[in-house]
Sequence to fold (177 residues):
Amino acid sequence: MSMTELEQLVSPQGTIALVTIAQALHWLDLSSTFYKQVNWVLKKPHGVIASWCYTSPKVNDAVDALHDKLYFFDARPHWDPRRELLEDNYRNIGFQFEPVEGVDHTGPFEFEAETVMDVDDFLNYIRSRSGYQISKNKGVELLTDDVVEKFKLAWGDDGKKIAKFQVYLRIGRVRDA
Fold:
């Protein structure tokens, strides 16, 4: 959106304390649009931007092995090249902000998040990913009946499991004007 639209639809210049973005920074035009807009709306000198991404969930050895094959070998040819920025946990995203007070760098800082899933939740998570969607649009079904059955066998009969995601946070403050 234009700066006029940004002011009309989001906020006037220098009035936002915090901008957050999750699992999407790699999709944006950072240097010429997004960062310019973030710098424009954030309060100076203390406005903060926090962006995070997360890795593939880890469930157990059997599920993880199937998922890693699907993710790193079957789906990877269908990834948009920008998607690769997630694989280094936003280390090389070109984050142009200053460290927040008390911190000597902008990250990424690592955390772990957990959620409870059953096998259908896990398969729906896979279906929500961009690589899966792109492959599907090209006529390639990654979750064939055979693959789904392998996931169900690896999952086992005990229903819900804890899925662990590593989360990587980049956080910084806007530079002084």
Q: What stands out?
A: Helices lie at 3-9, 30-41, 61-75, 84-87, 119-128, 130-137, 145-155. The beta strands are 18-22, 48-54, 109-117, 161-173.
